[in-house]
Amino acid sequence: MATHLSPVSETGTPRPAAVANVPTPPQVAVTAPRVRDPRLDFYRGIAMFIILCAHVPGNRWTGWIPARFGFSDATEIFVFCSGMASAIAFGGAFAKSGWWLGTARVAFRCWQVFWAHIGLFLAVATTMAALNLTGAFEKNYINALNLGHFFGDPAPQLVGLFTLTYVPNYFDILPMYLVVLALMPVMMGLARINLWLAAAASIGIWLLANPYIVGLGPAGVALPAEPWSERKWFFNPFGWQLLFFTGFAFMKGWLPAPPVSKWLVLAALGFVLLSMPWGSWKVLTWIGYWDPDLKATVQSHLPTIKEWRHKSDFGPLRYIHFLSLAYLGWVVAGEGGKRLMASGASWAARVWAVLLNVILKVGQQSLAVFVFSMWLARMIGWGLDQTNRDILTVAAANLIGFAMIIACAYVAAWFKSHPWRAKRA
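Structure tokens predicted for OpgC domain-containing protein:
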């Protein structure tokens, strides 16, 4: 079919005769750069600071982390936000390149997380061994992390480490994250058939880890953590995948964003406040000072909800508590995170703008920051062992730790920018 072109250009000027009848090349669609949601990076960044505090041995500041005021804690923030980030990072690969290449993209990430786990373990174990070998400290740092079996009989433990059948305490978050990532191709495949099928699979797997919910007994499906005992992974991936895929579903649009409603706000806030005595020994202690009888009543009922608040298998009370907090955080941040953004020229606005950018950077580099912070927490703990752990010393240690994970985030971002590549003119 012949193409008829006007001898007048789009600007209204006459076309040169030589090109008046030459077809113009098709317009190339320009894809706008993807804009990161500041809410995701903000809350994930906050979780990184909390996780550092929580892993410093004998840290006074852990008395004020979210885990001391309810059922859920920073782990839920990390897993939920990881699900949302995975929907952005990997969901597009499935949509654009198909299931097989999407699966390959996830497999590559699993490979990265696996070696991050191995590297973290070896770095921390080597550091603890080095501290012991100095002979300058009374504390046995190897035993403090329950690594005696590893150093006493390393051959089977090395095999277990690489097959994830030996997952020591303190090193159990990344293996959980790895297994949950490996479930993503399964969920994406089921979603191509029917979204309800994917939802049923996620809920069904969660129920396998928490069979008491449907009356099938207390023992659920779990993975072995060490060959010499019956201990299971502290973070059961079959339970925690529900939270991961909840975040994934929200970011993919499989679940609609909840409406901003004062009744939902009140319901979420009410659950968070009323659940405090049941999920927090700290709040329960405060209640005991005010009303010992009320404390005794709450304590008498705690055994009945033990499994429902269980952290390892991600009990339902933790799920409801976190969703309530997440909803409140979502409302507070505003549409697109507009309430997080600094406005105005006041000194407070300028300070908040700088602080916000720092938190966002930490959230954007969460894997590198997390791995570094787990090693750093042990070193901060060692440093505090050499002091009397007074308030000022502990505060200084935490603030130095914060500065170091911030530096880690900026260094990781610098390397990811590939500064050695020649820039085009």
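Residues 1-33 have pLDDT under 50 and may be disordered.
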